[in-house]
């Protein structure tokens, strides 16, 4: 591979120039010294374990760190460019990288955001901050039908499959989860040894392809599911309905990344594009979906069971609530994925133009559950560009109980946003199935970085809550998050958005929700239009 070619070429050059120096003038020895120095750097780069770029690109990789050292102008230019071409807080990359490296995250010169910008949001601090709790709050996942509830961290690893990520990336994330006491979502690509060997707590996600628990015909296999979900590391099970970056489509793994090993774990042909169906085959109505989730909980031995979705239609969310009421059972959790969420492969039209942003989807689900009297039985997770402590607090205010992060966790284990995920040519070994590239990611080092990132971010979220005057997420209110909506007007989330009261839809639906509530049925996902 390239890295060995460069070092080998310089080694050969050292020998050749050395021979020339022995029979020529002394000036040749200067060149020998320079080449020997480069060779020493190259050998060091190949053997060191802290920098994945240098392990894959010895000598030349130092250009990246040279550019990074030219602060603040040049590095800030790159930081302002987000991961996927859409607006992103330019400080986030700095926060994740420095927190993962254990660098104290306090910066000089104040805010770098335009606080006069329309849409600017801020948290409302208290004149009387409260002490931070000694231990960060956790969230107990498990409704009345769950016999093995799970204590969830405020920040966890969001769903990323083996296939999308390399084996070493999954090893690092899972080991970090074990060290830090947070959960690791497997993604829909199956439950693999790389998810299990680190000992971290897992949320096993099942997509419409049923990878890892599928029959030869590609349908859900309850016997395989029961056997694998019984593993001690599996703490919860989730059915993936849709993903924020591509709602309405199944997962996609390009052919270049479908290795023999991936094919074996997924039960699909090797070296062919792996596409999950857009829709599930195990249910076709809201009522059937709730029955499937209840069956998953039963098959797993009473572990928390839930589903993940990117919200589209409010009527469909209400149809699910009606199905829960009709069936007399609920999921233990719902993960709301925002349309701003990331992916390794999706059509741009879906990434930019389909699905609700996390704020709107999250508040839709929260209000629907509150107003149907189900909120106290179901916990809500939020994912979609969650990276910093303020993201966690904002999502808790908007209705979430906990959060998941994907891209930030990838960055913590070395991702440099090269955007080569779909090509199998990730330069740092995070998103590739090429074992020669994946070796660059040192599991021992990167797992510590991911654990430090998660711990520091949760600690910052808890500190922010204390500054707002609360020591527990239950004390957060929509009044504590405000938005600038015009050059002269600020409004809190309590004023900007409608917040339904417990049981309101069952008693007297408000006019703004009445049409959707009336059209929602537990027996179909399509709106029911009643004849006048």
Descriptive tags:
three-stranded antiparallel β-sheet, eight-stranded parallel β-sheet, alpha/beta, TIM Barrel, single chain, 21 helices, 532 residues, 2 domains
Your description of this structure?
It contains 21 helices and 15 strands. With 532 residues, it is of the alpha/beta class. The longest helix is centred in the C-terminal third of the chain and has 25 residues, at 443-467. It starts with a helix and ends in a 13-residue tail after the last helix.
Secondary structure blueprint with pairings:
Elements: H1 2-23, H2 27-47, H3 52-56, H4 62-69, H5 73-80, H6 92-100, E1 121-123, E2 139-141, E3 150-152, E4 155-157, H7 167-180, E5 183-185, H8 193-196, E6 201-206, H9 222-229, E7 234-240, E8 252-253, H10 260-266, E9 274-275, H11 286-299, E10 305-309, H12 314-327, E11 333-337, H13 348-353, H14 358-371, E12 379-383, H15 389-397, E13 402-405, H16 407-412, H17 435-438, H18 443-467, E14 481-486, E15 489-492, H19 493-496, H20 504-507, H21 511-519
Parallel strand pairs: 4-13, 5-6, 6-7, 7-10, 10-11, 11-12, 12-13
Antiparallel strand pairs: 1-14, 2-3, 8-9, 14-15
